[in-house]
Structure formats: C-alpha cells, structure tokens
C-alpha cells in the first residue's frame, strides 16, 4: 500500500466547532442605610462537536478494507462496505449554573471605626455529557452511509488477519483504535456535580491603619458515591494588617507611597471529585462477545474518605515607592496538610489496580516575592513605556505522616511517600553495572548485588531517594514595552531543583522493523563491555524487559532545571479616534509566539523537562480584537 503525506492531508479532514455562551443576571436591593442585598444567577452553556472524516482513497480506509477482507475458496468476502469512507463524530455538552444570595453591611462610626460584614450562600451545579458516532461507507456528498450492514462482533473476533497483510494485529491496531473507540462513549458519560457553600466575613478597621478580619464558611460537595458525613466540612481564617505608611513617623520617608504588614491564619479544604465511598459502576456499555448490555466497576470504594484539610500561616509585606514606580510583595508561608489524597496501588488479588485514599500528611514552607518597576512612563499614547515585572518562589516540603508503609522496594517506588522526604519523591533502584554476560544488576539494601529484576521484591531500603518531581524554586520575568500604539511583551521563566526520569534503556529480545534508539549502538557485546547498555538480541541473556525495574533505575534520573522564553507578543492598538468613525470603541491586532525552544536545560540528552520527551511545537497566533 502506498502512502503519500501530501495526499493524505487532503484525504483526511478534522473539524472542531465550539460554542460557549454565558448569561449573567444580578439584582441589587438597598434594605437600609449601609445594608444591601444582592442576588445573582449565572448560566453557562458549552457545546463542542468534532468530526474526523477519511475519504475512500485515504490510507486508513484502504488499510481497514484490506484487513477486513476474507478469502474463502477463492471467494472474497468484505466485512466493510466496498465504497465510501469513514466518519467519526463526537458531541460534548456542558450546562453549568451558579446562584448566589448575599447580604452586605458597611458602617463608619465616629469617623475612625469602619465595619464591613457580608454573609451569603452559593450553590453551583455542573453537568457534562456527550456521545460518539461512527459511520462506515460514508458518502460525504450524499450524506449517506452503510453502517447497518456491518457486523461489529464478527470484526472484533478477528485478532490477527489470515489473508491480506497476513498476521496483522487487526483487533489492537484497527478495531480498538478506529472502530470501538468511536462506538463507545467512554469518558463522555453524564457527570453531574453540585456544590454548596455558606459563608460570612467580618472586617474591622481603626483609623484605616489597623485592620482585622475573620472569615467562616462551610462547603458541601455532592460527590457521587461519597458518604453523607463527609460531604460537608467547616473552614475559617482570621488575620490582621497594619498600614505602616499612615503612621506619623513615616513622614521622614517621603519616597515610600505604601507600606503594609499583614498576617493570617486559617484552614482550607479540598475534596477529590473522583473519589467514592461506595463501589461504583458504569452502565450503558455493550458486551462485545454477546452484544448484551454490561456494566464496568470503576472504583472499589473507600468508606473512610474525608476532606483534605490545610492549615496555613502567612506573613506578608506590601510596598510601593518612588511615585508608585517600584512596587512589590513578599510572602512567607507555612502550610500543613492532613489527609492528603493519593492513589494506592493494590495487590492484583483484590481485582482492582488502585484505590484513592487519604494517604498522608504534608508540610510546606516557602517564600514568594513579586516585584515590578516602571522604567519609563509615557505622557501620551505616542510616548515610550517600559515596565519590568518579576516573580520568584522557593518551596520546601516534606511528608510528615504516611498512612500505609511500604513493605517492599517496588511499593516504595509506587507509593512515593516517606516520612521526612518531599512530596512526589523519586525513589530508585541503585544500579550495580552489567554482569559478565551483559545483564543489568542492582544493589540491595544490604549491599548484595541482585542480577535480575527480583530486586523489586527486596526490602523498601533497596529503593533510595534520588530527587523530587516538583521544582524547589521558580522565577519569572516579563518585560512590557509600548510606543505609539505598538506593544511588545516577553515572558521568561526558570524552574529548578527538581528531577525527572527520562531516556530509560529497555531490553529487546529480538530486532524490530521500526527504527531503534541511538543507544542501541552502545549495547553490550563481548567486544564492548565498558557500557551501561545491556546486551540486546543475540546477546540478551534474560529475555524480555521488565519496565517496572529498568524505568526506575537511578542512572535514568536526570536534573530537570530549565530556562525558557514562555511567549513573545507583538501588538498594535489602533487610534481610538480613527476606529470611532466606524462605530468601534477600540481595535487591536496581535501576533504571538508560544512554546519557543529552551534557552538552557540542565540535562544533556535533549529531553524537554516539561514534556519528558520532544518539546511542544512552536505555536504562532495571529489575532484581531474589536470592541463595540
């Protein structure tokens, strides 16, 4: 079968149509002096329709027809329509609404006591559903198809082909990917979620210098399958601030425009939306063997699930100086989280792969700094403006409690939680080099060398800490320049102090027809023993690879620091007087470049630390904006 890329671009068409609408209504009532009530309702509608059409002469349709053609005694039998193409469609719909009723009270007493109070309730519902359709023998001109003549059960029964393309994996490569995936609505089942909150905030200010606040709320999450006693949880916070710049002694510092010291203490919460207290199942599916309805168990259920809670202590400083040219914020925080959610891998005898549970306690300490400076300020639209903004953050976290302790090395790697170590830690097997036969080996906790993958069943200490996935520090800087309506923005980011697993070496028992990775050239042979790449093919002494071990070996843990230009934006704002002549209040044009190559990466293997592979392609965006 011939394949020509340029022809296939014309023969395969992908289309997406999106429609998003938002309706917002609000009513404001004045009940008494300083007392108001406002009620608002928001309704959002999201619609998305996508279609993938492959013409009759496309490579995909020709391949499908060849795969599902049978020859019995010289008689050809076609399981797919002999004419027409393939059309797969997907329809997604989202309906969301939010209702809020709130009382507001504001009063100033004796010119120096200011009291602000609000209390209200909020309810929100989100609903999402969708479906997929598949049309075979599709005639795009006549808008007709012959799908009803296709026996899908008979096609599914063909595991590998017995005629054209003999031995081709029809079920995995064709049926599952291009037929079954378009017939089922996996991932598009109706999901309805409801949330409710009751809240109250009280703020007091004395001479507008000294301020205090207290906030109380109770949140409810109507998560399907969650036990009733865990659907609601109370949270609260309180804090104080001091406007130092309003003190008399600050008159000696006339360059300081604003200086504010603040502190707060409080609790917040989170509920995992996909968690269930009871065993749940998905219905509406079809048994491919019998064609009868079936259901699939999605979660084994965890009756002990509860809200994740985080206690936060924050101290911050805000400032502005030099006629508001120089501004910034400094925040020092400490967060203690309890009952943190995580997926726990289960033994295969349970019948389930994993279970979501309240796994651990975590402590975070960090510092965040935001700075900005106006180097040049324009006096008019034709003037030159230049502003630089920068952010920096440092975070150090550690696990303070683990609900379930690992009992083996593979459990330690899978769990990723260990008291005293960071969240999302990387635990790895310690590589001991290659054996005399070119096979990989690893060190056990007691120092023994294990020359096979049974290392994973050794003690938890046989897997040791090799870094963390989350960055310890990150920096960002943005420069904005404007002149005579032209605008230029550039955002640069740096993330560092973290690690990644990348470019793991796999063992192949036999050659493949597809391209192989370059490190195969350095594989162990009797004449090439000074290498970490094990013997391949005829020099492979252990058979198939065991990714659970090879992928988690320490020599494949790489530093993940990087420096990138996140985006570059060039724009132009048309003169308002000019566009007003055609009934517009504003108009602008914008050209943006996203996903530029990294300026610097700490790894030397060519892997993008954000994708763990090839970097995302550079994206060019051209936009027009009109304001009426």
If you had to describe this structure to a student in words, what would you say it looks like?
This protein is mostly beta strands. 8% of the residues lie in helices and 52% in strands. It is built from seven helices and 28 strands. It has an 18-stranded antiparallel beta sheet that branches. Strands 19-18-17-20 form a four-stranded antiparallel beta sheet, covered by helices on one side. The chain is globular and about 100 Å long.
How are the SSEs placed, and which strands pair?
Elements: H1 5-11, E1 12-32, E2 35-54, H2 59-67, E3 69-72, E4 75-78, E5 85-109, E6 113-138, H3 152-156, H4 170-183, E7 191-206, E8 210-221, E9 232-243, E10 256-270, E11 280-286, E12 293-299, E13 308-321, E14 326-345, E15 354-376, E16 384-402, H5 409-415, E17 425-434, E18 440-443, E19 449-450, E20 463-468, E21 473-483, E22 486-496, E23 499-501, H6 547-550, E24 557-559, E25 562-573, H7 576-579, E26 586-594, E27 600-601, E28 619-627
Antiparallel strand pairs: 1-2, 2-5, 3-4, 5-6, 6-7, 7-8, 8-9, 9-10, 10-13, 11-12, 13-14, 14-15, 15-16, 16-21, 17-18, 17-20, 18-19, 21-22, 22-25, 23-24, 25-26, 25-27, 26-28
Q: Helix coverage percent of residues?
A: under 10%
Structural class: mainly beta
Largest sheet: 18 strands, antiparallel
Q: Could you tell me the number of beta strands?
A: 28
Average pLDDT metric: 88
| Beta-strand percent range | over 45%
> What gross morphology would you assign?
globular
């Amino acid at each position: 079968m011939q394949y020509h890329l340029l022809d296939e671009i014309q023969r395969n068409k992908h289309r997406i149509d999106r429609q998003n609408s938002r309706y917002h209504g609000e009513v404001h009532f004045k009940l008494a002096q300083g007392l108001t009530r406002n009620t608002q309702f928001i309704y959002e509608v999201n619609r998305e329709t996508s279609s993938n059409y492959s013409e009759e002469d496309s490579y995909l349709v020709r391949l499908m027809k060849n795969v599902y053609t049978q020859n019995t005694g010289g008689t050809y039998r076609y399981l797919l329509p002999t004419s027409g193409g393939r059309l797969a469609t997907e329809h997604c719909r989202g309906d969301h609404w939010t209702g809020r009723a709130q009382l507001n009270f504001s009063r100033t007493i004796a010119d120096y006591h200011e009291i602000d109070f609000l209390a209200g309730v909020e309810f929100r519902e989100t609903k999402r559903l969708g479906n997929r359709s598949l049309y075979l023998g599709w005639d795009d001109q006549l808008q007709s198809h012959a799908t009803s003549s296709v026996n899908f059960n008979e096609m599914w029964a063909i595991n590998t082909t017995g005629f054209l393309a003999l031995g081709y994996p029809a079920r995995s490569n064709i049926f599952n990917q291009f037929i079954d995936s378009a017939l089922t609505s996996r991932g598009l089942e109706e999901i309805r979620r409801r949330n409710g909150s009751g809240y109250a905030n009280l703020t007091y200010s004395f001479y507008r210098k000294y301020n205090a606040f207290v906030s109380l709320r109770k949140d409810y999450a109507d998560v399907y399958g969650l036990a009733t006693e865990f659907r609601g949880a109370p949270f609260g916070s309180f804090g104080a601030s001091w406007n130092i710049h309003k003190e008399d002694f600050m008159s000696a510092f006339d360059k300081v425009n604003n200086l504010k010291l603040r502190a707060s203490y409080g609790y917040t919460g989170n509920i995992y939306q996909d968690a269930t207290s009871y065993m749940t199942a998905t219905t509406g599916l079809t048994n491919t063997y019998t064609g009868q309805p079936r259901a699939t168990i999605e979660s084994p259920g965890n009756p002990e699930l509860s809200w994740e809670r985080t206690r936060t202590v924050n101290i911050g400083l805000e400032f502005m100086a030099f006629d508001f040219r120089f501004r910034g914020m400094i925040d020092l925080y400490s967060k203690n989280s309890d009952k943190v959610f995580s997926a726990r891998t289960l033994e295969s005898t349970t019948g389930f792969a994993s279970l979501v549970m309240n796994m651990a306690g975590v402590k975070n300490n960090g510092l965040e700094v935001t700075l900005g400076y106006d180097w040049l300020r324009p006096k008019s639209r034709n003037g030159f403006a230049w502003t630089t903004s920068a952010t920096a953050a440092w975070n150090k976290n550690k696990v303070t409690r683990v609900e379930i302790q690992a009992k083996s090395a593979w459990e330690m790697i899978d769990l990723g939680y260990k008291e005293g170590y960071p969240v999302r830690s990387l635990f790895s097997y310690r590589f001991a080099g290659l054996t005399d036969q070119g096979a990989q080996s690893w060190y056990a906790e007691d120092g023994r060398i294990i020359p096979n993958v049974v290392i994973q069943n050794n003690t938890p200490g046989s897997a040791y800490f090799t870094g963390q996935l989350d960055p310890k520090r990150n920096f960002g800087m943005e420069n904005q320049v404007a002149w005579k309506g032209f605008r230029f923005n550039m955002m640069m980011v740096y993330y560092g102090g973290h690690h990644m697993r990348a470019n793991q070496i796999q063992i192949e028992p036999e050659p493949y027809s597809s391209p192989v990775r370059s490190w195969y050239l350095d594989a162990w042979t009797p004449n090439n023993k000074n290498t970490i790449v094990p013997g391949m093919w005829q020099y492979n002494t252990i058979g198939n690879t065991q990714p659970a071990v090879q992928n988690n070996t320490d020599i494949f843990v790489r530093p993940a620091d990087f420096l990138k230009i996140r985006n570059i934006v060039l724009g132009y704002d048309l003169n308002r007087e000019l566009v007003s002549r055609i009934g517009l209040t504003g108009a602008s044009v914008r050209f943006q470049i996203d996903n530029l190559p990294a300026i610097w990466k700490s790894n030397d293997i060519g892997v993008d630390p954000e994708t763990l592979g090839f970097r995302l392609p550079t994206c060019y965006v051209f936009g027009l904006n009109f304001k009426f």
